[in-house]
Amino acid sequence: MRKHNTAVYPFTAIVGQERMKKALILNLINPKLGGVLVRGEKGTAKSTAVRALANLLPEIEVVEGCKFKCNPENRNKLCEECLEKLKDESLRVSRIKMKVVDLPVSATEDRVVGTLDIEHAIRKGEKRFEPGVLAMAHRGILYVDEINLLDDHLVDVLLDSAAMGVNTIEREGISYSHPANFVLVGTMNPEEGELRPQLLDRFGLCVDVKGISDVSRRVELIKYRLSYEADPETFASNWQAAETELCGQILNAKQLLSEVRISDDMLELISQICVDMGVDGHRADITMMKASITLATFNGRTDVREEDVKEAAELVLSHRMRRKPFDSHSDKQDKLDESIENHREKQKEKNKEKAQNRDQNKQEPQKQERKENTEKTHEHPEEYQSENKQNQTEGQPDASSETIFSTGESYQVKQLTPEFLRADRKGSGRRSKTFTSSKQGRYIKSTIPHEKTTDLAFDATLRAAAPYQLTREKNGNSVIIHKSDFRKKVREKKIGNLVLFVVDASGSMGARQRMVASKGAVLSMLMDAYQKRDKVGLIAFKGNSAEVLLPPTSSIELAQKYLQEMPTGGKTPLSRGLVKGYEVIKTELRRDPDTCPFMVLISDGRANVSMNGESPLQEITAVASMLKEEGIQSAVIDTESSMIKFGLAQQISTALGATYLTLENLKADSIVNAVRASAPFDLVSPSGAFSV
Is the pTM of this model over 0.70? Predict the structure, then answer.
């Protein structure tokens, strides 16, 4: 008969993944590191390692019956209930195992932070806090699988609590705080989307994992798993000695933390590495210092050495490196080694100068000159210089020929956040706010329901019923609620956008480097779309036709590739470009009625080809007016830059009802403001047509 798996897979029996295991252990030793983010393939023992980690340590002391598992030894951080027990001298101590609390991706904010205990409120007529996941995770491990798919505002809540060690709730008429010290472990597959850089930076450590490539080690892994599944108790007992040894090492390291001293030389090395690696802010310096100290204690030392700093840098900096979405990966290890080597050289030079000062063999001016020369010698090259910056001195080509222009300089864009506040909009994303009937949305207010609802706002319902309690017959009940008191929750969530670029690729765009600047603007928008996980599409019109270079896709890198390879030359069939853009949007809306499209037309407006033989400008005006009537939000970027301006793009913008921008103010904030200016419009038709 097959035995039931009652024993947790031993932490020390996990094959490979040494860096991941080290990062987890360091957070156990020093929870102030801020948690660890594990990025990589599925099936690489991420979940197994987290669950095994909690089983590794001995039981912890808690206040008996406390829902927050307060530490009886730490009187300054007891919850309100435990403080009352302390005053009454009724506080008792019990021992429990450290727990791993799972947070599902579908969790609501109420479930995470806690909410009003409705049953108690109805029965007793009193407000009482009902703990959430953060309370359950106190003094344990909070494990969030696929954390990149969790709503951003929930990730903010988790990281705030992990950093502060306290969960504060101000909602539903309740103001409540409780301790929330936990080791936060998040796992994710980068192919499914990244976390925002601001959230990435909040994780103390980050580890990238992948499957083992060595065949012999993979065989070893298989044998271990088979042995565990056949008899988990025996397998666990075979590893007990190793588990006990590692547990002792961790407990010893925790005791050494307060005794560790770090020299100014090591602090200087930490800061120099952060500068050389190009990280923003100072969180990396502080976290690397804490990680270096923790590594020293894990190795049984009270002094921080260079190897501790180097290992800490590999765990702290990988997710903090400044890197634009389309930049190629630099060799981080080489840069780290170079930074450490340069620091060594500087230290040698300093030591040499100190010796020379003692011997007084050199005069002060000579020493200063040598020091300055040495510093210049070891000065690091400027960071993030473009690896393949192209020469942008192309001449003005013949309009009938085709030329591939380079892409102009990109720049940081502000938030692109049009709001589509239509109820019951489905879908997911990270940019535009919208009302939703989904319970995964954030509860922002309440309203009177016009039909049956399953998402009752209990706090608002109780407040609506409160004034009538004295006049209602209670029949032994504390609170009487009528149907007229019901209030439902109004929730808000974020949904994805579709940014459709309709780019003029005719010969006139080659003049005065207008295509270079236009490509730079589109690239900047693509970078912002990459960070917000929007869909993008690219249409180019030239000659006698308009071509969909890239249908709506989430692959921003693919969009950048087509943008770079887009040729310029020929006539200007602008009306065909607008019609093609309209067709793409209609098709996308049929596929996903809840999408939020925004069209960006980049052109000088000098159309010279029509579809039906009439005046190109009249035809464009008619098409643009149709798009305006359909409610399509858009912006027109006028690339005309000659001394004599015809203002054709501005006329097209007026017909479209779009925001108009000239080439001179073609900057990130201008494009974003164009979208924001269009925000009041709402797209509602599932057929692909729009209504305003």
Answer: no
